[in-house]
What we know:
Layout: E1 5-11, E2 18-21, E3 24-29, E4 36-37, E5 48-53, E6 56-61, E7 69-70, E8 73-74, E9 79-81, E10 85-89, E11 92-98, E12 112-115, E13 120-123, H1 154-170, H2 173-233, H3 237-246, E14 263-274, E15 285-297
Parallel strand pairs: 3-4
Antiparallel strand pairs: 1-2, 1-11, 3-5, 5-6, 6-9, 7-8, 7-10, 10-11, 12-13, 14-15
Amino acid sequence: MTDVWxxxxxxxxxxxxxxxxxxxxxxxxxxxGLAARCDDAALEPHHMLIDISSTGAEVRQxxxxxxxxxxxxxxxxxxxxxxxxxxxxxxxxxxxRPGNLTAPGLSGNAANITAxxxxxxxxxxxxxxxxxxxxxxxxxxxxxxxxxxSGGLLPALLALAxxxxxxxxxxxxxFLVFGVVGAFVAFGTWGGQRxxxxxxxxxxxxxxxxxxxxxxxxxxxxxxxxxxHHLANDSxxxxxxxxxxGLTAELWSRRTTHPDALTVxxxxxNVAWTARLDDLGSNRTAGNLTSMVNLVDLP
Length: 299
């Protein structure tokens, strides 16, 4: 396990700021001279303690009325982290990752800058704007109730009553016998149809439940894919600051013709989301997205 960690402010007043911490005890807060300082009014001067060793990084909240949240969960006690973790501290978000991510060769390709006698010339790198275009989902079909009715018993009862009346009027008991036999056959047919309808409805209901479960899983997969797409491709102050300070290949690579030319992420939050369905006009809101980037179009 590495004993070097990289801390990056991904949201808040100091978004884009990065600090590399080695073994030992470090303080996160608003006070001057701290290892990971953030000029966030919601932070206490000494808000959080980080103890880095070869086994990982132990994080503990020192002060503050609002609990620090680690990957969405409140930080109630000292916690040992060994992998990348996001901390919500005050109004800011701090990303902690093992390793020195600011070392040469790990910060991306360098920008193509040519120095001339008069000035330095930057040759823009080609950039392809990523788009989110998932496969449209098909909603489960509604259960059909047509054609599932069984035959009625009223005709059989009327026929039995008519045969009895004829037997009484003509003094012929055989008419009543024939009526009873016909009614018995009608009752048997009705019972068989009724059983078949119940079995068909049970199978259709089971198929409907399975299709609904599969649809909900597909919606959840589409939702997580939507979040992952924006987290991986949206421009943030962190990316901009890294490109400016490190002179990486992303410097001035965005052009006005790109669909996200004037769009920037300003932080994380909950936003409404609509699933992509195959029926036009039938998109529905599937709920709120947590830890989703909030985008702003710049004028």
